[in-house]
Amino acid sequence: MLESVDRILVVVNDLNEAQNNYSNILGAAPVRDYRSDFLAADVRVMELGKSWVELVKPSDDGPAMKRLQRSGEGLLFGGVSVSDLDLFSDHLNQKASISPRRTGGSTSIAGNCMACPWP
User: Fold this and answer.
1) How confident is the model over 87-96, as pLDDT tens digits?
2) From residue 60, how far is each of 14, 36, 64, 71, 78 by CA, in Å?
3) Is 36 exposed, middle or buried (0-12, 13-18, 19+ CB in 10 A)?
4) Which superfamily is assigned to 2-81 in CATH?
5) Is the pTM of this model over 0.85?
């Protein structure tokens, strides 16, 4: 069902400190920086094995800042590859009351998961 984790987005206070930690502890390598208007944040993409970690430092009010203020540094979003989205969605809905939201050409999964680390 779940084939791979493509990326995770982690909200951080300091991009350089977070990069050093991910590099020194996990061997992650920086790839590029970009500005996300959606997240109102600066993002540093790092290669981590066959996946990516995107370090997200809020620069204005938005989803990243809200997550950081509410819960501190930690998981903001994640992206996964699945062989059957409907089956995966049903599984998440059964196990954690999480269901997909489809808009345009993308699908996001959101819900009220009390044990989950995301907002």
Assistant:
1) 887 887 888 7
2) 14, 11, 9, 17, 21
3) middle
4) 2,3-Dihydroxybiphenyl 1,2-Dioxygenase, domain 1 (3.10.180.10)
5) no
